[in-house]
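Worked example 3 (structure in, sequence out).
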């Protein structure tokens, strides 16, 4: 009986050891599988995070590129608007120069009158206003920045011509008797200074027996030239 008990005890001991060993091995395996699963999940999450970061960088670069394109477009639009504004301003200047638009502004009014003379003693041609006197004044006004000029109210254009015919002058086919009133729109002080310069136009006219008068005007209105 004792021998059988010993054998049974050994059998149970071995069986218990085997069960404990199997349980311990299974437990370790389950822990290892759990660790592997956690590592795989973490690795997958890291892969997703890296992929998302890469997408974010690409999107950020696209945003930067788009912003640069928009900035260039805005710059081009601004430059285009400035070009159009400059062209409009130039066109307005040309229309003004051609006499196609009504103009108003400050400026000067120059009056050229025949000088006093004794017909018995002097040559009348040496005391009357000729076309070159009027032309010299007009030319000086344009050089000094006049935007528009008229003679006796007749607006001048880019191809106007002035011809002397005795005591009258003809401007673009229309006759005007003396005195000749030349009105010019521009900066009054600049125009006045140019005409009144010592040794300038005023002095030359006075030396040629022409009566010269100048008046600054706050408001001058010149109508557009009619016709083609």
């Amino acid at each position: 009986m004792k021998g059988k008990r010993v054998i049974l005890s050994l059998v149970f001991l071995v069986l218990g050891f085997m069960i404990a060993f199997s349980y311990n091995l299974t437990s370790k395996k389950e822990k290892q599988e759990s660790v592997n699963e956690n590592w795989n999940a973490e690795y997958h999450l890291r892969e997703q995070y890296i992929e998302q970061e890469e997408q974010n960088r690409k999107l950020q670069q696209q945003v930067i590129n788009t912003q640069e394109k928009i900035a260039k477009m805005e710059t081009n639009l601004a430059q285009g608007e400035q070009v159009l504004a400059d062209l409009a301003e130039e066109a307005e200047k040309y229309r003004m120069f051609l006499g196609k638009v009504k103009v108003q502004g400050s400026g000067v009014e120059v009056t050229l009158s025949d000088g006093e003379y004794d017909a018995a003693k002097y040559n009348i041609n040496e005391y009357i206003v000729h076309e070159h006197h009027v032309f010299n004044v007009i030319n000086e006004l344009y050089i000094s920045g006049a935007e528009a000029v008229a003679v006796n109210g007749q607006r001048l254009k880019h191809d106007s011509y002035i011809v002397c015919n005795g005591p009258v002058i003809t401007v673009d086919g229309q006759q005007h008797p003396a005195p000749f009133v030349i009105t010019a729109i521009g900066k009054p002080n600049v125009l006045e200074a140019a005409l009144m310069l010592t040794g300038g136009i005023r002095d030359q006219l006075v030396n040629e027996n022409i009566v010269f008068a100048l008046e600054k005007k706050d408001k001058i209105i010149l109508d557009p030239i009619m016709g083609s």
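Notes: The domain at 102-222 is CATH 3.30.70.1880 (Alpha-Beta Plaits). The helical segments are 2-97, 131-143, 188-195, 201-207.
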